[in-house]
Each structure stands twice: as structure tokens, then as C-alpha cells.
Amino acid sequence: MEKLTSAAEAVSKIKDGDVLLVGGFVMAGSPETLIKALLETSTAKDLTVVSNDTGTVDSNMIKVMQQGRVVKIHGSYIGSNPMTGQMLIDDADSVTLYPQGTLAEKIRCGGAGIAGFYTPVGVGTVIENGKEKRKFGDREYLLETALRGNVAFVKATVADKFGNCFMRGSTKNFGAIMARAADYVIAEAKKIVEVGELDPELVTIPGIFIDALVQSEDI
Amino acid sequence: MDAKEFIARRVARELRDGDVVNLGIGLPTLVANYVPDGVEITLQAEHGILGAGGAAKPGEEDPEIINAGGFHITVLPGASFFDSSTSFGIIRGGHVDVTILGALQVDEKGNIANWMVPGKRVPGMGGAMDLVVGAKEVIVAMEHTVKGSHKIMAECSYPLTAVGVVKKIITELGVMEITPEGIILTEIAPGVTVEEVQAATDAVLIIHENLSVMDV
């Protein structure tokens, strides 16, 4: 199966109303080539974006948001993108904030066939509003449910043409788990090599999770 | 020595050899500069690093190695990288010995508020809620007051980050331990009186019978 394609072709799969998982922690591992293609070549709107931080003032996501195409955000730390902060002020329901580990685990569960999990994080805070609270032993936990996307954008340092991805250093963050939790997963890679040229011991994301592979503009 | 360096130096003395430590952004980051001789710690960064080092030298920045504040850093021999799910498993699973972070408010029940000021733009909690719940020990390192307003309270008024997790507060005025009986002032900064510390504190302080002078 040929996975190597253009960014424009890959993002053309995104439909109105889709849930889009976007990897990266601030700029580390942020799939800017794919977000730029979403900005410039796709007209998909009413998008829900799942992102740790929704990028910075210099990232492409804020420009997609300025086009009015993002109606809902799930994130954790949004101090680096003032547009997300403004969305939260204008409509509190448009931005849902989670403890960072809870967001990560929701996505991990989404990719791993787990419906939900109990976590002690958020007990006694606004995070517990509307959630089931249950005691295990003498400690209270909140039920958090899995989160999946229609499409995921992730960024690799090196990928082979089967889709096996190596994510170097601190770029693994959310991308490595989001790639397992969406129906259609697009990876951009700084370097793309032939099958067999990426050491199996260095694979962060097995290739079966990747549906489309795009050459990153960041090389 | 300014107040922040003074606080960071005193906090560093809390660290034990072998500790896995997560430092918050800002003042807590300075603590890494003052780790005592003979104490080796492993710094954890919540987006996926164990063994984080100092800032990268100009010209040697690696765009794929940043700290949780988004700054280019180095890693030390023995470091490892992993994804956010593994990282928060490390945090939630009790594998971080100490987390040191700032606060907007802390109260005598050990409650901490450090992620939002009502009516102001909300940056989000990031990893703070996970860290204070998951780490074995939570130390708040902060300036004692902000623009003359109290931060060490009988009861937090800002939205909480977590309930009953803080055991120790270190400021430029003193060291305080939070106990079921209340907040005990155990050490006091040189040249400061107990009355001055109490005046800067909303909660009523219990003064330790062997109150000592902070040694940095």
C-alpha cells in the first residue's frame, strides 16, 4: 500500500465536523507542514481540535483558528495561543481543559480499546464537575473516558515508506499516542527512507498506525 | 542575593541523593543551579524527558530537545525520552520523588491554587494537577506575598489545583510545614521577626519551639 503522498492530498480526507488530533508540545513535534496544508488547501470547517497547547502565535494552528474553522478545542495548557484563550472567554463550552496527564491517558485509551479509566487527578477541583467519583481503598478517583479522532496529524524525525516512525528527543510527546487513536493518521517526516532502512529497534510508532506519509517542509 | 536565589538555594537543600525531581517553570527552575555537592538528582520534564540538563549554549540548540517551558536544553548522560502517556504514568504512578512549583495560593489544609485567577485569561493547568497529586512530596517555592497580598491562606479563594497535597512551603521569609494542626513555621530568614512573617501570612502560624534561622 502506497502511503507516501502530498500534504494537500492527505489533508483532503478531512471533512466538516471532524475531530482532529494534533501532536506536539508547543513547537516540539508540531506537524506544521500538515497544519499549513489544512490552512491553505482544505476548506473543512466546524472542526474539533485536540492539542496539548494549540501551538503558539507563530504556529499555523492559530491561522486556521482565525479562519473561524475551529469550533471546539480539547487541550491542557493554552497560554501560548491567545486565540484559544479568547475562545474560552467568548464561549466557555468551546474549550475543554484537562490535566495534561488525563488528556494523554484519554488519547492512549482511545487507541488501545479502553473505554475509560479512574484517576485521582482533579479530585476536589473544577475538573470533577459532572464526572463519576469513586473510592478505591481510601482514595477518591474520577472516571475519565477515552478520546479518539477522525484524523490525526503527527510529526516524525525519520519514517520509512511503510510508515514506521522514529520521533527523536522530546518530540514524541502527544504525537506518539495520537497516532494510535484516530481513524486516519497522517505523519509528516523530516526524512523519509526506504523500507528496511529504519532500525526496528528505533521505531516509536509501528507503521500499521500510519495511513499517509508526507515529506515535512522542516528538514 | 535576591529573594528568588535565596529561596532556590534553600529549596535545593531539601533534595536527597537519587531523587527524581520535577521543577516548575520560573523560580523552581533555579533550584537546579544550587543542588548541594554529593547530591545527584534526575530531573524529569513532563513532556517526556528524564535526565534533563541545563540550557543549550547559543548555536548548539537542538529543536527536538526542549524543556517544558519551550526552551532549548541539553540532556545529561543517562537521559531517556518517552511519550506524554508514559511521562504522566511516571508522575501519577508515584515515581517522581519531589515536585517543586510555585503557587498563587496555598492554605493550611495543604490545598494549592496555581492555575487560574478568576476573571483573567486562563492559561490552563498543564501538568500541574497531575504533578501535585502524583509526586511523593510537593514543595511550594514562592515569594511570600504578591504585591503586598497574602498567598499563604487560612483557605484558598482561587480555584484549586489539588486538595491536601502540599507539605512544605519555602519563601524568602521562612520555611513552613503543613500539618493537621496547621502551618508550623520551622525556620525563619535572617533578620526577619516572627511578627513580620505572621503579618505577611493570612493563616495563623504555629511557631516551632525550636525555630531556627534559614541556612542557605
What does this molecule look like?
The complex is a heterodimer of chains A (219) and B (216). Chain A has 219 residues and is of the alpha/beta class. Chain A is 22% helix and 28% strand. Chain A has helices at residues 7-11, 32-41, 60-66, 82-90, 100-112, 175-178; strands at 19-22, 47-50, 70-75, 95-97, 116-119, 133-136, 139-145, 149-160, 165-166, 182-193, 212-215. In chain A, strands 1, 2, 3, 4, 8, 9, 10 and 11 form an eight-stranded mixed beta sheet that branches. In chain A, β8 and β9 (165-166) form a beta hairpin. Chain B is of the alpha/beta class and 216 residues long. Helix content of chain B is 17%, strand content 32%. Chain B has helices at 3-12, 27-30, 84-92, 128-134, 194-199, and strands at residues 20-23, 42-45, 49-55, 73-81, 98-101, 105-107, 112-113, 137-141, 145-146, 149-150, 152-153, 168-170, 174-179, 182-188, 205-213. In chain B, the strands form three sheets. A ten-stranded mixed beta sheet of chain B has the order 4-3-2-1-5-8-12-13-14-15. A three-stranded mixed beta sheet of chain B has the order 7-6-11, with no helix packed on it. In chain B, α3 (84-92) runs parallel beside α4 (128-134). The N and C termini of chain B lie close together (11 Å). Classes of the chains: A alpha/beta (219), B alpha/beta (216). At the A-B interface, α4, α5 and α6 of A face α3 and α4 of B.
Briefly say what this structure is:
The complex is a heterodimer of chains A (219) and B (216). With 219 residues, chain A is an alpha/beta fold. In chain A, 22% of the residues lie in helices and 28% in strands.
Element string of chain A (H = helix, E = strand): HEHEHEHEHEEEEEHEE
- Helix count, DSSP H or I runs of 4 or more residues of chain A: 6
What gyration radius of chain A follows from the Cα positions, in whole Å? Answer: 17 Å
The CATH first-level class of chain B comes to Alpha Beta
Tell me what portion of residues of chain A adopts beta-strand conformation.
25-35%
**CATH topology category name of chain B:** Glutaconate Coenzyme A-transferase
